[in-house]
Amino acid sequence: MIFSTLLETDAAAQPAEKPVPADGVGAETTAETAPENLLESAKDTITKNQLWPWVWAISIVIVGFLVARFLRRFLQLKRFRPQTRFIFSKLVYFGILITAFALALARVGVEASAIISATGFISIAIGFAAQTSVSNLISGIFLIGEQPFVIGDFITVGDVTGEVIAVDLLSTKIRTYDNLLVRIPNETLINANVTNLTKFPIRRIDLQVGVAYHTKLDHAKEVLLDVALKNPLCLNEPAPLVIYTGFGDSSMDIQFSVWAKTENFLTLRNSIFPEIKIAFDHAGIEIPFPHRTIYPGVVHSPFPVEIRDLRTPDKRENGMLESSVHSESSATEAKTDPAANRTLSVDSDGGE
Length: 352
What we know:
five-stranded antiparallel beta sheet, three-stranded antiparallel beta sheet, SH3 type barrels, 352 residues, alpha+beta, Alpha-Beta Plaits
């Protein structure tokens, strides 16, 4: 009884065999179509589940790149200021690229929360590893927001003077007057004294001039103001200014200040000095300079002296005897005392 029951169970568990045709054609057809059906099934699976998401992702990245380039070129038009063009073009460009990549990853099944978490951990690791770069990044944000200078301005930082050609998040690039590129970290700019030479439309040029003490100061002032009046680059408002700064060693010191447009600063500075010299020569105003007397060492012979008499014939005859007496006395003293070093200088009146 039990044995017959087990036999019936085994028979029921075995699959039923399909009837085989007598000629065997059906068996060969089934064997040939099985691999083809499997390949088509694999293609359908790849096409429906994997291929199209990747195609969409690549398309999103390409479209985002093209849109970012178009907007960056649009923002670089001259209707915007240079600093505005530079900042917004970069923000828009990288913002669109990041958005396109995020959409592409989401299209292929990568969750945004996972990307954000990974970005957070990476940012923390980079922050600890590159503290200087983070400081420069924060300083760059402050510079962009405060705008003490913009692209195209001429600034002085320490011993570096030049034109600002780029204000990046990590550094600022300056082109000097001799066409050198200087890269200054933004943290240094935040902590340093920065002088903007082209921030305002006009600048003042301060010229230091010296005149002899016998010169009439009112006359010298009139000559200087007339020079400023005749120069087309000098502005009438604010008016030129003449300030007496003090008594120098050999001259009366004067500060002559004139105003010019910022773009004409160097041109006016280079042209007004020769004009002052020519005007002083025509007005008979002397520009004094220091004189030096050179003494030889103790082991040398007396220093040779050449006397040039520039007096008129009448004064020359009257002073001839006095000059010869001075020369003889000096020669006598040099012979009796070889260690003494004397220099004889005669002015236009024959005095020592």
